[in-house]
Design brief:
CATH topology of the largest domain: Chemotaxis protein chec
CATH superfamily of the largest domain: CheC-like
Largest sheet: 7 strands, antiparallel
CATH architecture of the largest domain: 3-Layer(aba) Sandwich
Shape: elongated
Order of helices and strands: HHHEEHEEHHEEEHHEHEEEH
Distance between the termini: 98 Å
Number of helices: 10
Strand content: 15-25%
CATH class of the largest domain: Alpha Beta
């Protein structure tokens, strides 16, 4: 059979054209223009700036949440929001995943937070004191009650962060509803309906762990009118936002401390004439100073704790360096 019996040359050329190419203008009043197959995908793509702004706001919140659940400093990662049909998204989900259905009020819509089995295992392993580097047994087809409980706690924390990220745009409430493993029972949209997917990640110890936040297109639609105006805070608000982010990042930095237990001053002649067995007299001071590099930070008393040398901190050695937590600096 000749291919021309199935498709004409004009139809074949039209199918090979890229989506959105040579988009026609508005149809005349007495005519109807056909709806392109990727119409809703292109609408969601046009709303990406607002979604990206919300995702950026989530990053600073996730750093705190990740540090609380994984008990170490974490780096938050976000990938650009994507729009896909719900049926297409569920087909690419891993065979064993934790799907948390969320209730969005007052919009009366449903959303989803999807965690794969590896993420759930790491969350549970760290909770019980592990390093989170192990692998979940492939024979475990169902999530244990403790895994489900920890997953719910994590998702509820993520929903609180999500609510704060959306607050400047829309006043929404995100509530946990249930956990499913079968996408059929966790459907938040029809198979052909579009959804917005934002993938977040938490990186620590050289590993990255991702989860998806899936929202229906009906929730994203109101953001289209905010894509240009956006919630502007002005220069002062922007400066404070960067200051808060910088402070969070700096607080997670590792700092090496050293303490000088005692010191004596002698002249160079005595050092040159010193012989084995000579004694340099010194006295242990009443307070010990802790240094970060050459910068004094804290003062305390020397002692022992659990069989190790230790310093009990009594007061800051430099209020100017330590900042507002210890009150304003008074210059003499």
């Amino acid at each position: 059979m000749d291919h021309s019996d199935i498709l004409s040359d004009e139809e074949s050329a039209a199918l090979r054209e890229p989506a959105g190419a040579d988009a026609p203008g508005p149809a005349p009043a007495d005519q109807v223009r056909g709806l392109h197959a990727d119409h809703w995908e292109r609408i969601l793509a046009d709303q990406a700036p607002a979604l990206e702004s919300i995702a950026e706001r989530m990053l600073s919140q996730l750093k705190i949440t990740g540090r609380r659940f994984f008990r170490r400093p974490v780096e938050a990662i976000v990938q650009p929001p994507l729009s896909r049909r719900w049926g297409s998204y569920t087909r690419q989900l891993p065979g064993h995943a934790s799907l948390s259905v969320i209730d969005i009020k007052p919009a009366a819509l449903k959303g989803l937070v999807a965690l794969d089995a590896g993420f759930v295992f790491t969350l549970t392993d760290v909770f019980f004191g592990g390093d989170g580097k192990g692998q979940r047994s492939a024979d475990m087809e169902e999530f244990t009650p403790i895994e489900q409980r920890l997953t719910r706690r994590f998702v509820e924390a993520v929903l609180a962060d999500l609510q704060q990220a959306w607050k400047p745009f829309l006043e929404l409430g995100f509530g946990f509803e249930k956990i499913e493993t079968n996408p059929l029972f966790a459907a938040i949209a029809g198979s052909s309906e579009p959804v917005s997917i934002t993938r977040f990640g938490l990186a620590f110890d050289g590993n990255e762990h991702f989860f998806d936040v899936v929202l229906p297109a009906a929730l994203v639609e109101p953001l289209r009118s905010l894509r240009d105006s956006g919630p502007l805070k002005g220069a002062a608000g922007t400066e404070q936002q960067w200051r808060n982010r910088l402070q969070e990042d700096v607080q997670g930095a590792q700092v090496a401390l050293r303490a000088v237990l005692a010191g004596s001053e002698i002249n160079l002649r005595d050092i040159a004439l010193a012989r084995p067995g000579d004694v340099i007299c010194t006295e242990l001071p009443a307070s010990i100073v802790l240094y970060a590099g050459d910068q004094p930070l804290m003062e305390g008393t020397f002692g022992a704790c659990q069989g190790r040398n230790a310093v009990r901190i009594s007061k800051p050695a430099n209020r100017r360096i330590l900042g507002e937590h210890y009150g304003p600096v008074k210059d003499n």
